[in-house]
Amino acid sequence: MTELERILKETLDAQTKELGESLTRHQERLDIQNRELMETKRTLAELRQRLEESERHLMRLSSVYDSLKPLLEKLNSSLSAR
Q1: What is the value of pTM for the model shown?
Q2: What does DSSP assign to residue 28?
Q3: Please, which pLDDT band fits residue 82 given cuts at 50, 70 and 90?
Q4: 5 closest CA partner among 37, 19, 13
Q5: Are 45 and 38 in contact (CB under 8 A)?
Q6: Residue whose C-alpha is closest to residue 54's, from 14, 41, 8, 46
Q7: How many angstroms separate the most distant Cα atoms in the chain?
Q8: How distant is the alpha carbon of residue 73 from its chain centre?
Q9: pLDDT tens, 6-25?
Q10: What span, in angstroms and rounded, lies between the C-alpha atoms of 55 and 26?
Q11: Cα separation of 75 and 22, whole Å?
Q12: Which one is predicted more confidently, 65 or 81?
């Protein structure tokens, strides 16, 4: 092997090692970001579920209020008339 071939081989080996390490670092970052994304998706699904539950509760409260409103108005009128 000539000196030039040895230098080229060393350079190629060093660059190959560097690229491998860089690829490993990028893969680790992607794995971390993927885990964070999955956690965000789980949190979002939980928040959506809570929102739907809150909407159902609000609808029930609104229905109860609508049912009680006439009675409350009558009671208010009766109390005001005294």
Answers
A1: 0.64
A2: H
A3: confident
A4: 13
A5: no
A6: 46
A7: 114
A8: 45
A9: 999 999 999 999 999 999 99
A10: 42
A11: 76
A12: 65
Tokens of 45: 């699904």
Q: Given a cut of 80, is residue 43 above it in pLDDT? A: yes
Dist CA 59 CA 72 (whole Å): 19
Q: Which strand (E) or helix (H) includes residue 69?
A: helix 3-81
Q: What is the mean pLDDT of residues 14-43?
A: 98
CA dist., res. 43 & res. 59, Å (int): 24
Q: Taking the CA of residue 51 as centre, how many other CA atoms within 13 Å lie in the half-sphere pointing to its CB?
A: 6
Place of tokens 């071939």: 5
d(CA 23, CA 17): 10
